[in-house]
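Backbone-to-sequence.
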């Protein structure tokens, strides 16, 4: 079957998702919130050597919480983790989250991840008032205000504002793939790797086994956690948290196809996966060998393809931004 993108070629082609960005031109950084229309099963697969994460264990299959309400991506390294605090305050005020007792505040489950952009242009002399909590609040408000399925900006916006992909601009990318039976897979990524982005997913050998090695040596970015690709893949199938974990693991191949090298000791690469539950997989298993595991493999392969395309789209969009 020939694959095609969804109507907007964005992660919001998975029904029930909304994206909001908040960008600080002054500080050269930002935050991005991906909001679900309920509580979706989710998981995370972490392969970079210097990750910066929040609320990861809550998604583990053995833990009680059934799913998440949003994901926050931000620049700012450890300071950027505060973006999720700001996002959950706005979401709770809007009634998003778990209602634990009548009349009490709702409790949004908002995992987050951060990338390092502190060495890139922008005012980072913020003293005791980093901008990330406010950026998280603004990004959440933008997501809440967006219609489900709406388009959103790519490139040097939100969490991708200060990102670099090797020695060129990185940024926010997204893509989607439509499969049979109405299944849809989408990807959202903030690309900030120490490696280079390859549009064709193939090595370029010029007699050198490691063609990027000299470029990496010149970057001056070789500190653990100073470079990161943050990604989310989503689908509209009904998956449990264990299956979402496998989806995230398979989607990591998209990073390997588009970024050379990836998962280094200096990167904090993470892929989140989430599932809306709109389409049941079991009724699609009547025709052998299309077992539930077969369909999960199909979704994972598509997630990797969508993520590789999203990475390239984001870098291309960022390169078109005038400074």
């Amino acid at each position: 079957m020939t694959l095609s993108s969804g109507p907007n070629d964005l992660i919001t082609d998975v029904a029930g998702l909304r994206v909001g960005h908040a960008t600080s031109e002054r500080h050269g950084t930002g935050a991005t919130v991906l909001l679900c229309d309920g509580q979706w099963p989710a998981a995370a697969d972490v392969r970079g050597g210097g990750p910066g994460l929040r609320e990861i264990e809550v998604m583990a299959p053995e833990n009680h919480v059934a799913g998440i309400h949003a994901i926050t991506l931000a620049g700012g390294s450890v300071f950027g983790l505060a973006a999720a605090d700001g996002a959950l305050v706005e979401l709770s005020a809007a009634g998003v989250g778990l209602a634990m007792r009548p009349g009490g505040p709702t409790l949004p489950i908002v995992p987050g991840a951060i990338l390092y952009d502190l060495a890139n242009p922008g005012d980072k002399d913020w003293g005791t008032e980093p901008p990330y909590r406010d950026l998280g609040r603004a990004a959440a408000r933008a997501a809440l205000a967006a219609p489900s399925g709406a388009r959103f900006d790519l490139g040097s916006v939100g969490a991708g504002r200060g990102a670099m992909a090797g020695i060129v601009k990185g940024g926010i990318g997204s893509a989607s793939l439509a499969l049979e039976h109405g299944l849809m897979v989408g990807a959202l990524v903030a690309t900030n790797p120490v490696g280079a982005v390859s549009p064709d997913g193939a090595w370029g050998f010029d007699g050198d086994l490691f063609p990027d090695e000299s470029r990496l040596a010149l970057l001056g970015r070789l500190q653990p956690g100073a470079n990161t690709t943050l990604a989310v893949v989503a689908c509209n199938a009904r998956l449990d948290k264990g299956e979402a974990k496998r989806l995230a693991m398979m989607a990591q191949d998209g990073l390997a196809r588009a970024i050379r090298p990836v998962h280094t000791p200096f990167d904090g690469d993470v892929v989140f996966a989430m599932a809306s539950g709109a389409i049941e997989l079991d009724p699609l298993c009547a025709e052998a060998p299309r077992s539930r595991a077969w369909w999960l493999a199909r979704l994972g392969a598509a997630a990797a393809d969508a993520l590789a395309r999203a990475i390239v789209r984001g870098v291309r969009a960022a390169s078109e931004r005038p400074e």
